[in-house]
Amino acid sequence: MIVLAIGAHPDDIEISCAGTLAKLKQAGHEVVLCHVCKGDKGHYHIPPSELTDIRRKEAEEAGGVIGSRVLTLGFGDGEVIADNQENRMKFIDLIREVHPDLVITHAPNDYMPDHIAVSHLVFYATFFATLPHFVTDRPAAAKVPGLYYMDNLSGLGFEPTFYVDVTDHFATKLEMLKKHQSQLVWLKEHDGVDIVDFVDALGKTRGIQAGCAYAEGFVQHLVWTRPNAVRFPV
Description:
Oligomer: single chain
Protein name: PIG-L deacetylase family protein
EC number: 3.5.1.-
Helix content: 40-55%
Number of domains: 1
Largest sheet: 7 strands, mixed
Keywords: Hydrolase
Pfam families: PIG-L
Order of helices and strands: EHEHEHEHEEHHHE
Enzyme class: hydrolase
Number of strands: 7
């Protein structure tokens, strides 16, 4: 099975679903990580051109922890919010490149514009990637993948429809997250948040809800054709 996780920025996947991805990878599934934006504006002191290179390397190192391929769509931060056909076609091409059985992305009610835009564009692309008359550099995808939403930051406004026990993979999740050193600094300075501690607390909270030490919560996108597209393999 091929699993594609799509986050708006290079650290979003690690924050919300890296434990599950590590578990899937260990179980023998192919896991591909994609950050849509370059993360070029998330720092007080480092200029965008320099920060782009830093964050790309951090993302690649994080993916390397579990041996996963890391892709980027190369949008600047704040540039993905335009839900136009040009942007839609880039997402369609991503789906056609990876051919995922299952896609994980942001929930439609996440906390910031890039996250929300990515959620809508992924929903759009996972369906229209199967239509051959949407012409890109790649042939149409063979099927509509299952679609799952990962937890919102801090869990606000997010009621999981199921949980994944990531107790045995939580240390790997934190190892991946700590590769994003530039963002650990940024989130501390901009938001006053120790993101490692933050993620640990949410993992324990979801674990309490799920009856284990650490868990990650998800919502399955339930519309026609989607529920039967694929079963979540954990």
